[in-house]
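Technical note accompanying the year-one report. For the benefit of new consortium partners, we illustrate the data format agreed upon in the data management plan: each record pairs a sequence with a structure-token string. No post-processing was applied to the example shown here.
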Amino acid sequence: AGQLGEAVAQLEDLVADRELRRGSALSGRVAAALAFLCSMQGRGPEAADWANQALVTTGNDPTTSLTARQVLATALAMADRTAEALALLAPLSAGRISPGPYEPELVTTRGALKASTGDYAGASRDLAAVVRWARAGAPLRSLPDAYAALAQAEYGLGEWDNAATHAELAVSLAGDLGHFWFLAQAHKTAVDIYAARGEWEFATEHVVAARQAARHIDVPGQVAAASVAEATLAWAQGNWQAVLDALAPLRQPNLAALTRNFDPFTWQLRQAEALVATGRLDEAAQVLDEVEAAPARPPATALAIYRLRAGLALVRAEPAPARAAFDAGIAAGAHSGA
């Protein structure tokens, strides 16, 4: 039923049991489960604490170790510490012909983090390896996640036909495998592609499906993904108030934190653009300040910030700051090769 809060409370009661603490393997499994559930609620610091505890007490249980490492990487990303998350997973090799036990799961997590931070080429390498391993028979419970992240990477690389195919595969697999906690995020990836193409009918179908998925299961990340999906379509159509309405749930800090794993900054930049378009200039400036101050933002984000700051200055009838922002954006683009 997706009652995450109740599950967390029950596990916290269990982990307080002195007899349980004497058995490190069982204690490690409970800590890993708590880490996973806290991460799904957007409680990054608590998820990281439980994941670290699980790693210390895991013993020789590979499943517990896998869950703890995955959750720790995810929790670090939620806290804008993506570089640390990637460092945690850096020893993994996408070039292996046959992966080690549970390695495809961890490479999937790494690829998804790379895609979320704009390293689309690196993400594509990781996720193509995961798909190759899965086709060769390697067990992979997170195959829908791999296809969705691969679609995000291909979208960023301009390979939109491949991206659409893999996004649809992610949606289909998540439904067939009963991964209802991931469905809205898979639909959100499809919305990115179809909205960019102006294929409104397909994009709208996936927005509706994302909303239905978010209502079906009590998982905050699905609410966050559905909100971003709806805002993406509204932004592509220039419906600025609808962008702000769709993003309203992300005022809750835990929901905003959950977007760090699939759309860290794009939705905030679109929120800022909608605020400018609706005349809420001070709020737009505040959002841009928050994005600019984030330590883990992709380099390409800087270009969007300069563009939006220039637009904000023009609306305020401040031509000198607008010119300075445009000039800085052009210089940054030339330096990055954009």
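Partners are asked to follow this layout when depositing records. The CA atoms of residues 188 and 229 lie 5 Å apart.
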